[in-house]
Amino acid sequence: MDKKKKPVILVFIVMAAVIILGIFCLYRNLTKEHEYYCDGFLLTVDDRVIDLQERDESITFVVELLPITRNDLAIICRVDENQNKLMVYNFRKKDFIFEEYGIQMAWVQDSYDTLMYLKEDIVYNKDKEQVFEAPVGSHVLLIEYVDTDFKATLTDENYENPTEIWID
């Protein structure tokens, strides 16, 4: 073999190894399962600890942590008997991408874009645009997705006689 060909082949092999190693590291980071839990008001997301009461002192306790997508985590915190603090934390951005007061949130699993939330008998989308408002004399009791179809359960003003409304 030529002495000139040996360095070229060696450089090619080293470059191929670096590329393969880079792809492996990127794949490992992209498929990594995120860790999250809450201890009191301390939310731990991967290696970061966030004091939720420092973020919003009106929070009285954390109700639920629910994954929306691989990279988005819904955090529902109780504020008082009539409302919650609704938040979404994004693992990639390492920050909150949504925060609003309301009663509840709903979404299609693995689709942050479908996020809806309920506040004072009005349903909003993730961009805080009104999607539906309960008619006068009615209350929105529940919002939910059934597969990919969105539905609200309404009651009369006494919170009786539930009816379902499908919203486009």
Characterise the protein shown here.
With 168 residues, this protein is of the alpha+beta class. The protein is built from 2 helices and 14 strands. The chain has a 4-stranded antiparallel β-sheet, with no helix packed on it. β13 and β14 (163-167) form a beta hairpin.
Report on the biggest sheet.
Answer: 4 strands, antiparallel
Count of DSSP helices? 2
Rg from Cα? 24 Å
Topology as H/E string?
HEEEHEEEEEEEEEEE
Could you report the average pLDDT, rounded to the nearest whole number? 90
Structural class by helix and strand composition: alpha+beta
Bin the strand percentage. Answer: over 45%
What is the approximate shape?
A: elongated
Number of strands: 14
Straight-line N-to-C gap = 71 Å
Strand order of the largest sheet: 4-5-6-7
Helical content band = 10-25%
Poorly predicted runs: none
Q: Would you spell out the secondary-structure blueprint of this structure?
A:
Elements: H1 5-30, E1 36-39, E2 42-45, E3 48-51, H2 52-55, E4 61-67, E5 72-80, E6 83-90, E7 95-102, E8 104-108, E9 111-119, E10 122-125, E11 130-133, E12 138-146, E13 149-156, E14 163-167
Antiparallel strand pairs: 1-2, 2-3, 4-5, 5-6, 6-7, 8-9, 9-10, 10-11, 12-13, 13-14
What are the defining features of this structure?
single chain, 4-stranded antiparallel beta sheet, alpha+beta, elongated
